[in-house]
Each structure stands twice: as structure tokens, then as C-alpha cells.
Design a protein that fits this description.
Helix content: 10-25%
Number of helices: 9
Shape: globular
Number of domains: 3
CATH topology of the largest domain: D-amino Acid Aminotransferase, Chain A, domain 1
CATH architecture of the largest domain: 2-Layer Sandwich
Distance between the termini: 34 Å
Number of strands: 33
Largest sheet: 10 strands, mixed
CATH superfamily of the largest domain: DNA ligase/mRNA capping enzyme
Strand content: 25-35%
Radius of gyration: 23 Å
């Protein structure tokens, strides 16, 4: 299914360089034409063409630095070293709207690709938490060969696929060298990963989020959402550099590990990253195959694209990234959200993301990006544990919480299932070191067993059936929570209530200009 969905991006022959494509592209209402709709411009036409205004002075200039001067919203500026990924707002239902584009929600690692930072064709990959992922996924360095520009910043996601092509988070963990307890182990390099690009944020300049070409060479730097450098964590993704047709760029995307059926696997992603469910480092499992899904380009060949509308960034992204087995461009489907959600449901995927066509890229959560989930998953802060019962030793359940708008940690449930014998023992080692007498929660904890508190330093991935409305602080609890693993790429302070909102109301607010 993944192969079919990205087949339109596969190219049998090398495309013309981006500079040549852009030199023939014209703007019409701020839209850049695709290569199939461009035409050559004669010398006479070029001579008589109206000179654009200088970005700094506002006066006309006969000489243009780049065809990107004609792209509405593109701003010439030095390539930034840091990008905070744009995030989607959770809503409760899919909707159809011709002014919105729809994408699959991948179950992998968000990663921004920086290409061409050093003046050469280097790739740097950065996670949502600003961790450098570059060395963690060396196979994705081939991204550089697929980018047709001097430099760029591309937003996307690293995905691990199973044998059927489905994204698998457990395979992603396996590829990363992480176990369910957060311990590091050898990365499983046999797990196939790829990068889905879904936005271009910067495109040729002054020489996971992937930063490419920062040092004038074809180097790749990978930074997580929390600004952690993940470049060394995924050395196989250094091949991203080979897939970028530009001098430098910044790409937003996600690293994904896929299981044997092709589904994104969180546990495999932890395995690949070398993390166990208890957050301990172990040797990354390099046999786990990971890939990078690029879905946005933020910077390209000296120009910031964050003020360029999504539709035109998508066109630039498709020109910059040359897909291969490690790097994919996340496909979008105009207008038909309900059909795509049902297709995602049938394939066992996590959900979809709806993005407003005219949305610019803002480095925070926005109503112009809406996510519709099929399965219920939530990153929760571990604030304590309960006494064991029956044959279980050490602890019974994890006591989980989320921060509210006032910064208070509200209890939302307890998870005792989902552990293996090994992950349970490793989690216990972690909890013992964090034990404290101070209660980190605000409000009453509903538990029939004694609760022991720990410092709120660990984040757990939890799968559950639904939110249930209950009395007390917070007002809601998770029903049937199941522990999936630790998320060392997440900051505990980012674990906040994210209750589904009305899609109709959020769309109306976004289209009225109320985007944040």
C-alpha cells in the first residue's frame, strides 16, 4: 500500500536540476507552476520582463538572484540553524473541503532535514525535540542525492515499514536500538526505514527537521522537535543528502520504522534508537529498517519558505526531493478527507492530517493543521506507581498524568499491562532512582492500592480505548490504558491535555484567520 501511495513520485530518469526548473517557472497569483506546465522564456521576453523589487530596498532590480524571487512569500535570508516543527490540532472527525489537503499520519519519528548548510551536499537531521538524528540513521544520508537544489530545509518523518509496507512504530524502536524500557541496544540495521518529506521551509543560500548543506558540503544534520541533535543516532539517513537536488535546505519530516507487514512500529523505532521502555540506553538495533518521510520544505537555496503557502511549498518539495527506498515524499489528497480516513483505517494506520492549502508555516501548534486519529494514543508523564498484586513483583501499575493550562500535573489513569518480564524489571530500576516523597500531581488519585511518587521525568506512550468523563480535577480518564514504551524524544512538559475538538469549529476559526 505504501508503495502504491508513493509511486507517482518515483522517477525512472534523473529530472532536470531545480535551478533550471525554477528559471522557467512563472508565478500566477503566487503559485509556482509544475515542470509539466512550464515553458521556456526567450531572451527578448526576459529582457522586457518587469524587474522585481529588491527585498531589502523595495526598489526594482534588473538582476534577480533566483527564480525564488518570484515565489510569493519567499524571503531571502541566511539559512537558520534551528526549526521548531509546526504541529497539528486534534479534532474528532474527518471532513471534506476543497480548501484543505489531506495526508496520512505516520507512526514514526518527526525529523527536519537541513541540506547544504556547509556549502556542500551534506544532510543534517533534527528531531522534534531538537536532538541531532544524523548519525542514528546513516542510510538516510542518501537523501542528498534526491534533492535538486543547493540547500534547503525539509520537514518530514522517518518511518520503518514491515514486509507489507505498513509503517511500524515497534520496528522504528527496534531500528533505533531502543527497547520497551528505554534501554539502548544495538540498532537493528535490518529494519528498513525511509523518510517521508511533507514540507519545504527553506530553499540555497548563504552557506526528524533535516538541515542540509550547512557547512558548504553535502552534510546532513537532524534535529528533533525538542531541538536535540540526532545526527549521530541515525547514520543510515545520511544518504538523504544524495536525494536532495539543491545547495542547501531545511526539510520537515518523520523517521519511521516499519514492521514485517509494512506498518509503522513504535516499539521497533525504540529498538532502533537503542531505548527500552524504561528509558535506559542500550545499543541501537541497526537491523531495523528506517526511512524518512518528508512532508514540508522550510528553507531552500537562500530563501525562507515559511511565509509561502502550503500548496506551493508542496510543489517545491516535490522538485527538491528525489524519492528512493530510504526517502519518501508524503503524498497528499485534495478535498476528500473522509475517504482517506477510511482507507487509513482499513490499512491499520494511525490516522490522517488535514492541512489548509493557503497555510503558512508557523513554529507551533496551529488550527490550520488538524489531525484525525483512528487509534487512541497519548504521551503521558509517569508520576508514580502502585503496589504490586498477585505474582507481580516491584510495582503494579504506572500512575500517569498530563499537564493542564495552569501547569498542573493532573492524574489521568494507571497502566499495568503491556509489559514484558524484562521491561517490567527495567522499569522498576528506573522508578526506584526517581522515587520521591513529594506528590507531583494536582488533585486526588483514584487507586485502591498505595501510590508511591516519582519525579515527573519519564514520558510513556500509552494506547487506550477512549477518554471517559469523570468527576474531579481534569474531568477525564483513559479507559483500558496499555503501556507501549518510553518516549525519550518527548519533553514531559509537552504532555498536555489534547481533547478532540470540533472539526467544523476549528476549520471555521482557521479560515477566519484565528490559526493559533
Amino acid at each position: 500500500w505504501l508503495a502504491d501511495s508513493t509511486a507517482k513520485y518515483d522517477r525512472q530518469t534523473a529530472p532536470e536540476p531545480l535551478a533550471e526548473q525554477l528559471s522557467t517557472a512563472k508565478s500566477s497569483g503566487g503559485r509556482v507552476r509544475t515542470s509539466s506546465s512550464t515553458k521556456s522564456v526567450s531572451a527578448k521576453e526576459a529582457k522586457n520582463a518587469k524587474a522585481p523589487k529588491n527585498a531589502a530596498t523595495g526598489r526594482s532590480s534588473k538582476k534577480k538572484d533566483s527564480a525564488l524571487d518570484e515565489v510569493k512569500g519567499a524571503v531571502k535570508q541566511p539559512m537558520p540553524r534551528q526549526i521548531h516543527p509546526m504541529l497539528a490540532t486534534l479534532v474528532g472527525a474527518a471532513f471534506d473541503d476543497p480548501d484543505w489537503l489531506y495526508e496520512i499520519k505516520w507512526d514514526g519519528y518527526r525529523s527536519v532535514v537541513f541540506f547544504g548548510e556547509d556549502g556542500k551536499r551534506s544532510v543534517r537531521m533534527v528531531s522534534r525535540n531538537q536532538n541531532d538524528q544524523t548519525k542514528d540513521f546513516p542510510e538516510l544520508q542518501s537523501i542528498a542525492d534526491q534533492l535538486r537544489c543547493r540547500n534547503c530545509i525539509v520537514d518530514g518523518e522517518i518511518v520503518a515499514a514491515d514486509e507489507s509496507g505498513r509503517a511500524s512504530f515497534s520496528l522504528m524502536q527496534q531500528r533505533s536500538g531502543l527497547s520497551g524500557n528505554g534501554k539502548r541496544r544495538s540498532p537493528d540495521r535490518s529494519v528498513f526505514i525511509l523518510y517521508y518529506a511533507f514540507d519545504v521551509l527553506y530553499l540555497d543560500g548563504y552557506s526528524l527537521v533535516v538541515f542540509f548543506g550547512e557547512d558548504g558540503k553535502r552534510s546532513v544534520r537532524m534535529v528533533s522537535r525538542n531541538q536535540n541533535d540526532q545526527t549521530k543516532d541515525f547514520p543510515e539517513l545520511q544518504s538523504i543528502a544524495d536525494q536532495l537536488r539543491c545547495r542547501n535546505c531545511i526539510v520537515d519530516g518523520e523517521i519511521v520504522a516499519a514492521d514485517e507487514s509494512g506498518r509503522a512500529s513504535f516499539s521497533l523505532m525504540q529498538q532502533r534508537s537503542g531505548l527500552s521502555g524504561n528509558g535506559k540506553r542500550r545499543s541501537p538495533d541497526r537491523s531495523v529498517f528506517i526511512l524518512y518521510y518528508a512532508f514540508d520544505v522550510l528553507y531552500l537555496d537562500g530563501y525562507s519558505l515559511m511565509k509561502v503557502d502550503l500548496e506551493n511549498r508542496k510543489k517545491l518539495l516535490a522538485r527538491v526531493v528525489q524519492p528512493n527506498e530510504r526517502v519518501k515524499v508524503s503524498e497528499h489528497f485534495p478535498g476528500d478527507g473522509r475517504t482517506l480516513l477510511e482507507a487509513a483505517r482499513q490499512q491499520g494506520l494511525e490516522g490522517i492530517v488535514a492541512k489548509r492549502r493557503k497555510s503558512c508555516y508557523i513554529q507551533k501548534r496551529s488550527r490550520e493543521w488538524l489531525k484525525i486519529k483512528i487509534t487512541q494514543r497519548q504521551e503521558c508523564v509517569i508520576g508514580g506507581y502502585t503496589d504490586p498484586r498477585g505474582s507481580r513483583e516491584n510495582f503494579g501499575s504506572l500512575v500517569l498524568g498530563l499537564y493542564d493550562d495552569k501547569g498542573r500535573l493532573i492524574p489521568v489513569g494507571q497502566a499495568g499491562s503491556g509489559f514484558t518480564q524484562a521491561s517490567h524489571a527495567q522499569m522498576w530500576e528506573k522508578l526506584r532512582k526517581l522515587e520521591t516523597k513529594q506528590n507531583p500531581f494536582y488533585g486526588k488519585i483514584d487507586s485502591p492500592r498505595s501510590v508511591h511518587f516519582v519525579k515527573p521525568a519519564l514520558v510513556a506512550e500509552i494506547k487506550f480505548t477512549e477518554w471517559t468523563h469523570e468527576t474531579g480535577e481534569g474531568g477525564i480518564k483513559m479507559r483500558a490504558p496499555i503501556y507501549q514504551g518510553l518516549r525519550t524524544d518527548k519533553d514531559p512538559r509537552e504532555c498536555r491535555f489534547e481533547v478532540k475538538k470540533s472539526a467544523q469549529e476549528e476549520v471555521a476559526k482557521a479560515e477566519s484567520g484565528d490559526v493559533a
